[in-house]
Backbone:
């Protein structure tokens, strides 16, 4: 079931919300939790009931391993548990890709039936891996089956995140916490949901009208002009941002309506001043997962190895600075999809990170009085460079093949020439390129000058929970939300515009991951 | 009462009022939008329970009679009826037409009335029953009307689009679902199997309900509301078909002449072959459906009891064929072969082709990717195969 569907907005959500608050007020704690679990399973099964079995099986498997790890925190059980999760993920997500590559490499003809990717498998698998690791490390101590089921299945975050940790959620499922829910949660949650819905159906889906034909044209071998390529790349970058951050806002908002605070997933990533900053603000929960559970351990392991083996400066540099970020970003790429374009996307971001790390190192080596200091001009330049690099890399993310990605990137770099007379061929950048330009300029304004949801609404309220390192302070106190008449009318109009735009809506981009 | 409790109560009041305003204002706005869409109803899809029945001004039967008897057709200044109702009524109206053509918008220009006559070898005169988004379901439903015609045409020409050999590719036929179901019971031996295909489709009433709060429908309703003239549809005088008039014109044979604005708009467009709507309704890999073909064959056999039957394909723009990897090109190649296979097994004629080279149509003879002009349509019989 999609958040941006009539059935979800007018039937599913109101019914589940009503049932939840009635049960909660009457003090039926276990029934309240069970109601949410049943609703979440129904929500998941709506797409394809067959894969409910996989989800339920995965819950039982991980809960059992969690139980074992809680009583005997042994590396063997942890490894076994993680391997089980990765095995399922590998089969459903990567088997076809793996077999295709084997066939190409060795001219084999191994035939594997097309495996349908179960919705949200990457999200619920990673979430449960964090649970196993946290249990092993003694961070997750609660072991209640109902709460665990809700931690995995809670429908606002089940299909496309944010990826949550058990210790974030379990305390919020506690009896006393659920009972003390306030009207403020419902109000702030509903407003956040409207913002997310608007981002998805009004902004993202309208930008897609300009990005899609250009990417389709490139897929069919059509050479884009320099301006079409940049138009398409920018339109897609904004589409992707509004699509996924819109989804995350909706998840956050729905969570709050049930009194559950989910972590933020976006924090104005296009305002980032460097690539490292970008990844701290884009899909933050995935970045955090990769950083904590992959990058840091690998980096530590390799650095220790290089020092133990006396590999010298070059060896240490290679093993501690080069390999870990590259490996981490290739994993980020592959997490997003089983395809070489995603691998190249990861490599490109790995290279960006290396360049950034070099820059920081070199700048630090210069005497302090001669270093480039941060000021308004350097900030604008660094933001521009980061934004351009990210937009460039997103072409690989959207392209359906490496060939199509290469085709667009060639045009982006101006290798096919820069023609000022025929900037847009008819139909390639949407039916009306001028409208495309208006959408891009409007999007640039929104992402650069308007506050994000956190700054606008959530920070100022008691419903918000500070998840520590997820917070990066970017003060913006010009536009603030308050429960006033004007804001109510504003959001009613926003909701109306979103609802009447629903009929032509698409699935969320992140559903395919 | 402590200060904290007081603050909480005040806050709660603010939050409750805020929620109430959003919800009330939202429902008021939705009601306004739905009312405008219902009242204007440019496609005439809503029943007139609460509306002043405009159709009382002139019955649809009178309208079709006037159309057929007119010298130059009718200028469609007002959209009083749903087009499916018009053509359904037209199908039952006795005429001297030798052929009736079932089709979609790509076939709406097929005419025996224009200088560049279409299908002149097959029929001296024809009645065009093409409707936008015309699908097999439409053809079946419209047959119910044709068989009630006291002086029916001798030949039925069934136009095939690359999507026609699949059910459920367009919902508009649901407008006359009853006629469709009646005909299905007559033509299909194992209707239970077939009806399974249709149980999956969303109810037409739900679609209508959603349409009431649809942005595009609302925008066009507003346009119509602002520009709406109360001028009645009027008989057309002689005019230049290549230039059109201010509004669309329905010619006496049911074919359409676009408005001048549309014709000029088409002329300004450059066709690149990939960015148009030609992949509309095409689902890669699902080029045709065996059970649909089974129904189609039974439908043709049913028609053959009383009519001559021919299958017709109209070409797509040559530029579309230049991008052979796009789904519609594969669909055209596969479906065209299938059409010949079906025609061979049912021993009926095939006229035309999806391929403009075979028919000898040039790029200039198209309005856009999918819609050939009258000159191209007059060449369809360059490909004529009798099995």
Residues:
């Amino acid at each position: 079931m999609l958040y941006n569907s009539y059935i979800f907005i007018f039937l599913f959500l109101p019914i589940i919300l009503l049932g939840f608050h009635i049960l909660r007020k009457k003090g039926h704690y276990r029934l309240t939790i069970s109601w949410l679990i049943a609703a979440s399973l129904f929500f998941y099964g709506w797409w394809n009931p067959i894969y409910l079995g996989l989800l339920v099986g995965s819950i039982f498997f991980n809960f059992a391993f969690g139980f074992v790890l809680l009583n005997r925190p042994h590396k063997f059980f942890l490894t076994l548990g993680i391997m089980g999760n990765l095995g399922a993920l590998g089969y459903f997500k990567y088997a076809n890709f793996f077999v295709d590559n084997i066939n190409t490499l060795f001219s084999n003809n191994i035939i594997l039936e097309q495996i349908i990717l179960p919705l949200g498998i990457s999200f619920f698998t990673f979430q449960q891996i964090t649970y196993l690791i946290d249990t092993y490390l003694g961070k997750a101590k609660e072991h209640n089956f109902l709460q665990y089921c809700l931690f995995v299945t809670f429908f606002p975050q089940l299909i496309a995140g944010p990826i949550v940790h058990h210790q974030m959620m379990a305390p919020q499922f506690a009896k006393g916490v659920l009972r003390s829910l306030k009207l403020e949660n419902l109000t702030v949650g509903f407003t956040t949901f409207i913002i997310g819905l608007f981002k998805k159906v009004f902004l993202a889906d309208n930008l897609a009208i300009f990005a899609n034909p250009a990417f389709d044209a490139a897929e069919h071998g059509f050479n884009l002009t320099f301006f079409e390529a940049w138009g398409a790349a920018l339109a897609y970058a904004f589409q992707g941002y509004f699509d996924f951050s819109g989804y995350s806002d909706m998840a956050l908002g729905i969570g709050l309506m049930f009194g559950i605070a989910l972590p933020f997933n976006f924090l104005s990533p296009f305002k980032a001043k460097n690539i490292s900053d970008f990844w701290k603000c884009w899909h933050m929960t995935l970045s955090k997962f990769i950083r904590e559970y992959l990058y840091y351990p690998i980096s530590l392991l390799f650095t220790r190895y290089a020092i133990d083996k006396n590999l010298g400066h070059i060896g240490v540099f290679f093993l501690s600075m080069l390999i870990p970020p590259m490996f981490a970003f290739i994993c980020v790429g592959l997490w997003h999809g089983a395809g070489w374009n995603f691998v190249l996307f990861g490599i490109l971001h790995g290279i960006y990170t290396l360049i950034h790390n070099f820059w920081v190192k070199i700048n630090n080596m210069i005497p302090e009085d001669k270093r480039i200091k941060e000021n308004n001009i350097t900030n604008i330049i660094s933001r521009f460079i980061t934004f351009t690099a990210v937009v460039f890399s997103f072409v690989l993310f959207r392209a359906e093949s490496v060939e199509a990605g290469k085709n667009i990137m060639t045009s982006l770099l101006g290798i096919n020439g820069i023609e000022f007379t025929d900037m847009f061929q008819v139909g390639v950048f949407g039916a009306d390129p001028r409208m495309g330009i208006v959408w891009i300029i409007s999007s640039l304004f929104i992402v650069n000058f308007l506050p994000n949801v956190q700054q606008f609404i959530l920070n100022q309220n008691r419903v918000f929970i500070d998840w520590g390192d997820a917070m990066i302070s970017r003060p913006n106190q010009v536009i603030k939300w308050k429960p006033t008449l004007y804001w109510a009318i504003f959001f009613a109009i926003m909701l109306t515009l979103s609802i009447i735009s629903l009929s032509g809506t698409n699935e969320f981009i992140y559903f395919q991951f | 009462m402590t200060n904290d409790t007081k603050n909480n109560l005040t806050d709660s009041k603010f939050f409750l009022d805020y929620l109430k305003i959003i919800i009330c204002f939202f429902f008021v706005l939705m009601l306004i939008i739905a009312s405008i869409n219902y009242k204007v109803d440019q496609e005439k899809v809503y029943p007139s329970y609460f509306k002043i029945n405009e159709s009382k001004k002139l019955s649809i039967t009178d309208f079709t009679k006037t159309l057929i008897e007119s010298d130059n057709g009718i200028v469609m200044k007002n959209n009083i009826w749903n087009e499916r109702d018009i053509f359904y009524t037209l199908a039952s109206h006795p005429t001297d037409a030798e052929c009736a053509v079932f089709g979609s918008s790509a076939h709406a220009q097929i005419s025996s009335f224009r200088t560049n006559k279409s299908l002149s070898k097959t029929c001296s005169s024809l009645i065009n029953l093409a409707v936008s988004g015309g699908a097999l379901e439409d053809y079946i439903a419209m047959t119910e009307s044709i068989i009630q015609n006291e002086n029916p045409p001798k030949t039925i020409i069934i136009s095939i689009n690359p999507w026609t050999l699949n059910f459920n590719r367009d919902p508009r036929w649901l407008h006359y679902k009853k006629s469709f179901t009646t005909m299905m019971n007559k033509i299909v031996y194992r209707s239970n199997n077939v009806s399974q295909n249709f149980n999956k489709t969303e109810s037409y009433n739900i679609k209508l309900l959603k349409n009431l709060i649809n942005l595009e429908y609302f925008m066009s309703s507003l346009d119509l509301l602002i520009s709406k003239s109360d001028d009645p549809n009027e008989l057309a005088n002689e005019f230049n078909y290549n230039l059109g008039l201010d509004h669309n014109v329905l010619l006496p044979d049911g074919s359409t002449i676009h408005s001048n604005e549309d014709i000029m708009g088409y002329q300004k467009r450059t066709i690149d072959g990939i960015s148009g709507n030609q992949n509309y309704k095409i689902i890669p890999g699902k080029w045709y459906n065996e059970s649909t073909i089974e129904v189609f064959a039974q439908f043709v056999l049913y028609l053959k009891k009383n009519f001559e039957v021919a299958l017709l394909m109209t070409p797509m723009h040559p530029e579309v064929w230049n991008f052979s990897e796009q789904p519609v090109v594969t669909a055209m190649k596969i479906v065209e072969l299938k059409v010949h296979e079906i025609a061979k097994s049912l021993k009926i004629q095939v006229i035309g082709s999806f391929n403009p080279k075979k028919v000898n149509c040039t790029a200039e003879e198209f309005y856009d990717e999918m819609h050939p002009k009258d000159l191209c349509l007059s060449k369809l019989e360059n490909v004529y195969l009798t099995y």
Summary: Chain A has a mean pLDDT of 84. Chain A touches chain B at residues 6, 182-184, 186-187, 190-191, 194, 213, 216-217, 220-222, 425-428, 431, 483-485, 487-489, 491-493, 495-497, 499-501, 503-504 (CB under 8 Å). Residues 183-219 of chain A form the longest helix (37 residues). Residues 183-266+400-513 of chain A form one domain.
